[in-house]
């Protein structure tokens, strides 16, 4: 259980997070969406303790992380897995050594136990046998997989992922999203993902928080997003004509009608000549 209460963070007098309240849903993927510069990364960095907030609370199981001693924070950190933009793998280390790193930091496991655990997580992300490869030898999608393996190697209760799809093609993005979602459900992890990827929002949006200029502007799921009348959200999410049409089609499927401000005929193409089948010839 993670609860964020009235979280504020600024830099040199400029407010970035302006009092954010969010309760993350346990055992699910919680998506933080919003345009570039809206404060998503700062938010995640506050949650994992990389930034100290100016005020507000971040409660892990009811305990305020911001008020903890270094020792107490370390205990929470042990339960947190992180995957940051660019995967942040150590380029001079093999895949295996990258994944062993958190085990060396936080456990007293034997070398044999650590190697067994590495093989388990590599297998889980479908990279069996990649142990001795170096990051430079991997594709973008494989690097993300290694990043995920490293993030889950300590069996975290919480997983934080910043822009998992940056730099990936749409198909690979979808596979990475799916993997994160599967792992979240399989291990009952509470996952928080920053993204601006529309596909992710629709595919894994159990709980979506839309940030606008450092404030929570909207909250809901991928079904509710279709019906939302929040103008800022709609301008952000349904930024192209194509996506606006997709939204309306989805709405039409669900309710049999579209938004009042849209032209139904135009949308369904009933007056578009190309879509009307040619009249059958009568040969009788
Ligand atoms: N370490 C920092 N020092 C000063 N300003 C920062 C720092 N990190 C982020 N910011 C500012 O905070 C704002 C939000 O940034 P960020 O959280 O990275 O946005 P997002 O991840 O939503 O694109 C930006 O205006 C950015 O310049
Ligand atoms: Mg960011």
| SSE arrangement, N to C | EEEHEEHEHHHEHEHEEHHHH
Query: How far do the termini sit from each other?
Result: 73 Å
CATH superfamily of one domain: P-loop containing nucleotide triphosphate hydrolases
Uncertain runs: 272-276
Helix content range of the residues, please?
A: 25-40%
Roughly what fraction of the amino acids lie in strands?
Answer: 15-25%
CATH class of one domain: Alpha Beta
Assign an overall shape. Answer: globular
Mean pLDDT: 89
> What ligands does this structure carry?
adenosine-5'-diphosphate, magnesium ion
Q: Largest sheet, order of strands side by side?
A: 6-7-8-3-9-10
Summarize the model shown:
Helices cover 40% and strands 21% of the residues. It has 284 residues and is an alpha/beta fold. The strands form 2 sheets. Strands 6-7-8-3-9-10 form a 6-stranded mixed sheet, with helices on both faces. Strands 2-1-4-5 form a 4-stranded antiparallel sheet, with helices on one face.
Describe, in plain words, how this protein is organized in 3D.
By secondary structure, the protein is of the alpha/beta class. It has a domain at 1-79 and 157-173 and 190-225: Rossmann fold, CATH 3.40.50. Helices cover 40% and strands 21% of the residues. The chain is built from 11 helices and 10 strands. The strands form 2 sheets. It has a 6-stranded mixed β-sheet with strand order 6-7-8-3-9-10, with helices on both faces. A hairpin with a 2-residue loop joins strand 4 and strand 5 (63-64). Helix 3 packs across helix 4 (111-124) and helix 4 (111-124) packs across helix 5 (140-152). The N and C termini lie far apart (73 Å). Residues 40-41, 162-163, 194 line the site of magnesium ion.
